[in-house]
Design a protein that fits this description.
Elements lengths: L5 E5 L6 E7 L4 E6 L4 E5 L8 E4 L4 E7 L2 E6 L2 E6 L7 E5 L10 E7 L5 E6 L8 E7 L2 E9 L2 E6 L5 E6 L4 E6 L11 E5 H4 L4 E7 L5 E6 L3 E5 L5 E6 L5 E7 L5 E6 L6 H6 L6 E5 L9 E2 L3
Parallel strand pairs: 6-25
Antiparallel strand pairs: 1-24, 2-3, 3-4, 4-5, 6-7, 7-8, 8-9, 10-11, 11-12, 12-13, 14-15, 15-16, 16-17, 18-19, 19-20, 20-21, 22-23, 23-24
Length: 297
């Protein structure tokens, strides 16, 4: 398996860093700290600290849109202008939020046609009460129910497959996918961490230009690469237990950024793992894919 040198790109103390997202047009990396409701914007090499905005609720993920970002806050989807102006525009309510006592939004992203997909997480992270949605004409359409923790959303370069996981099951599923209509076929088990003897649970993910799927193993201290056939072909050892999601960035899309978390670590574990909560990076040989923007349709 390939040997990757991992570095700290930005030393941070994020509670639950997630959803790294690279804009080729802006040469900017975006990501969130879910638990603190903070969204980051950072231009590597500019010599400036990241710009941030903090909402008054948790933010599960972000996506690119014209002139700004689409954010999946706990209670619903919002549009954020750039530079951040502290005036998020509501777009669609979360049907599972139930006045602050339900399931918040978690992992999500845009498909190649610019359609936004987002999943929820069970309020206790233990029961299959969550679901996967797509945003259609300003309304959220439920696409898959019976999920505990929706994660790992990604699309194959040939637009034939949607990848997704319920982290509680430790399995990654693959759905036949029609990018034009957004329709899904029946999901098939694609990768099983138990069968492969891999630790942790599958969290956020990204797909490279060769169609390989990179998955962060939360609690497993690894980011692993799977071939289109579901074969485990490479690993990156992460210097903390909880990597959360990889994303390809840089001008050539050959920098793999990895968000991490400090939640679930006690004081002694934080001292043991000083990189926990930081933004990490590694150079990789195979480029990623340019991130699509939300079409607004």
């Amino acid at each position: 398996m390939a040997d990757y040198r991992l570095e700290v790109a930005l030393p941070l103390e994020m509670s639950l860093g997630e959803s790294p997202l690279w804009s080729q047009a802006r040469q900017t990396l975006y990501w969130v700290d879910i638990n603190h409701g903070t969204i980051y914007a950072w231009r590597p090499g500019a010599g400036m600290p990241p710009e941030t905005i903090t909402l008054d609720e948790k933010v599960g993920c972000v996506a690119l849109c014209e002139g700004g970002l689409l954010g999946a806050a706990s209670s619903g989807l919002v549009r954020l202008r750039l530079p951040f102006d502290n005036k998020p525009e509501p777009l669609a309510a979360n049907p599972e939020w139930h006045e602050g006592h339900g399931n918040r939004f978690n992992d999500g992203g845009c498909d190649p046609a610019g359609r936004f997909w987002v999943g929820t997480i069970d309020a206790d992270a233990t029961h299959p009460t969550a679901a996967l949605y797509s945003l259609e004409g300003g309304e959220l359409v439920r696409r898959q129910a019976g999920i505990g923790i929706a994660n790992g959303l990604a699309f194959s370069p040939d637009r034939r497959w949607l990848y997704h996981t319920d982290s509680l099951t430790r399995r990654i599923l693959r759905y036949p996918f029609d990018a034009i209509s957004g329709s899904l076929g029946e999901p098939h088990p694609w990768v099983d961490l138990e069968t492969l003897g891999l630790p942790g649970v599958p969290d956020g993910a990204a797909v490279d230009s060769e169609g390989h799927y990179w998955s962060a193993l939360y609690g497993g201290g690894k980011v692993v690469r799977f071939s289109p056939e579901g074969e485990w072909v490479a690993s990156i050892e992460v210097p903390c237990p909880h990597p959360t999601m990889p994303a390809f960035g840089g001008a050539d899309l050959r920098t793999l950024y990895i968000t991490t978390a400090t939640q679930h670590l006690d004081a002694e574990e934080k001292r043991q793992w000083p990189a926990a909560g930081s933004l990490l990076c590694a150079s990789v040989e195979v480029a990623g894919l340019a991130e699509p923007c939300w079409s607004g349709a």
